Amino acid sequence: MNALEKLAPPKLDRTRQSAPQVFEALRELIVSFQLEPGTLLQRAELAEHFGISQTPIRDALLRLGEEQLVDIFPQHATVVSRIDLSAALQAHFLRRAIELEILTMLCALPEAEHGALVERLNASLAVQQSALEPLDVSKLAVADQAFHQALYETAQVGPLWALVRRQSGHVDRLRRLNLPVAGKPQAIVRDHRAIVSAVAARDAPAAAQALRLHLAGTLSFVDDIRQRYPQWIVASGR
Fold it and tell me: What is the pTM of this model?
């Protein structure tokens, strides 16, 4: 059975290049497990699903391969990869190191920029809170990413966010598996509030402590995730 048959075809913006849109759509389908690890992706089926030629499909799959979200076997098949715990740990280390430095910078911003940042983060918290009642996992996941992206952009290191995102495919999938666990969505918003509170007070050590707690949340549940989804996990390598 074609794995895409149960999914509604996305509407592409014809004013933008197709390949980036296909990449974004497929990445979200993979991270949200609408396309599960082990799913075979055929170029012809993807081209029919998106209503485009195979060239942008190929380009999108190559980008997904660079993010290790698919395994590409030349002249044979492209398959949604399993979650590599080693790669997830490395992405977590990279993100934590960068964001700890960013928070130190943000706590020292000039008054006007600092006030604008706190206002922006509080607006993000309002969106996240709205995703809890009723619970909307997809909305919360998007708001979570937007919250962290705002930190990078305000620190004027936006390109580093793109770098982190390219490395985060495996840990993003771990987070999505962990997100529906009872209490986890509320914990994410609570952690974000603690970060905002510390940044607003210009308390860099408290902001760093809150960030460490926040980013450690998913990896602390790795053993549980591995027990629940053993067929989707590899310890290292593929």
Answer: 0.87
